[in-house]
Automatic annotation (TrEMBL):
A single BP term in Gene Ontology: thiamine diphosphate biosynthetic process
UniProt-recorded Gene Ontology molecular function terms: ATP binding; magnesium ion binding; thiamine-phosphate kinase activity
Pfam families xref list: AIRS, AIRS_C
Keyword Magnesium tagged: yes
Positions with a binding annotation for Mg(2+) 2: 47, 75
Claim: Glycoprotein is one of the keywords in the record: no
Gene that encodes it: thiL
Protein name: Thiamine-monophosphate kinase
């Protein structure tokens, strides 16, 4: 199967289903064309996933399609952007039709769920690697950044943390239990917090998506903003499923495990009190921004010591 036949059969249909008037020209020409409406900024980011490094070897192709687009689109969520379109650079060891059909199915489901259209790509032979560039827009000058946190702001996270990290233990389980399946689905099918990010535009002072673990990613906000924070591990949102599969270690995973793709934001108290209830309900306050640099972790001294943090209070 040639490159063009492969594109026509598996990837062109994804572009044909596109429902955006901002993608003027999709796959098939030398470039795609995106129209950025007046009063909007173009927001874009690229992510590469390498087999054996960013996803397991022989990983289910449909899961890979979903996961690759979800991971890339999560960066748009963290900026408060509306997704528009993406390009796909795909490096394949061989043109396995079953694999391609599964991968395209996962991509199609994710494209539809996130409202983002395939605009073009590149297809090459080599070790399995998926690179996605995602494009979105925000109202001019309003993109959420990492550098706006101020002393006194609340630190909040969305959803629950640690579930996807717990799934790593069960990826190879032949018959995962119901509760193991719950955490597995959080790894296979992350859901970028697009709507939440958009609701936080003009309200949050800083935002980041949690791809490497809360402690690591919150520190990116602190460094970019030139501030510090104090958070309490006991306030972290942890799912019942995570507690069930990991017991005592649930908190450690919630603090340090990646792959959840929830949002971590900072927000002024005045802005917080004015948030619409449905937005507030998506968030949990876990701490506060302080003027002196560094991250101070309360409520989990054993974990804090292990991770090299200043700590206060006691493990419960
Ligand atoms: P060029 O040589 O001009 O870069 P290509 O031969 O690489 O063009 O690609 C031809 C067309 O097919 C382009 O419009 C490109 O965007 C599209 N395309 C190539 N690979 C993919 C892919 N994996 N998914 C979607 N579109 C693709
Ligand atoms: Mg090319």
């Amino acid at each position: 199967m040639g490159e063009f036949e492969l594109i026509r059969q598996f990837f062109q249909p994804l572009a044909d289903r596109a429902v955006t008037d901002q993608l003027i020209l999709g796959p098939g020409d030398d470039c795609a064309i995106q129209r950025v409406p007046p009063g909007r900024d173009l927001v874009f980011s690229v992510d590469t996933l390498v087999e054996g490094v960013h996803f397991p070897e022989h990983y289910h192709p449909e899961y890979l399609g979903w996961r690759a687009l979800a991971v890339a689109t999560s960066d748009l969520a963290a900026m408060g952007a509306m997704p528009v379109c993406y390009t796909l650079a795909l490096t394949l060891p061989e043109a396995d039709q079953n694999w391609l059909a599964g991968f395209a199915r996962g991509l199609a489901r994710a494209s539809e769920a996130f409202g983002i259209a395939l605009a073009g790509g590149d297809t090459t032979r080599g070790p399995l690697t998926v690179t996605l560039q995602v494009h979105g827009t925000v109202a001019t000058g309003t993109g959420l950044r990492r550098n706006g946190a101020q002393s006194g702001d609340l630190v909040c996270v969305s959803g629950t943390l640690g579930d996807a990290g717990a799934a790593l233990d069960f990826l190879a389980a032949p018959e995962p239990s119901a509760v193991q399946q719950q955490v597995l689905s959080r790894y296979h099918f992350p859901e970028p917090r697009l709507f939440l990010g958009q609701q936080l535009v003009g309200r949050a002072s800083a935002a980041i998506d949690i791809s490497d673990g809360l402690l690591a990613d919150l520190q990116h906000i602190l460094q970019a903003s030139g501030v510090g924070a104090r958070i309490n591990a006991q306030d972290l949102p942890v799912s019942a499923a995570l507690r069930q599969v990991r017991g005592e270690q649930a908190l450690e995973l919630a603090l340090t495990a990646g792959d959840d793709y929830q949002l971590c934001i900072t927000i002024g108290q005045e802005q917080w009190s004015q948030l619409p209830d449905p937005v507030k309900q998506e968030l949990t306050v876990i701490g506060r921004i302080e003027p002196q640099p560094g991250l101070r972790l309360e409520g989990a001294p054993r974990i804090a010591a292990k991770a090299g943090f200043d700590h206060f209070g006691s493990d419960v």
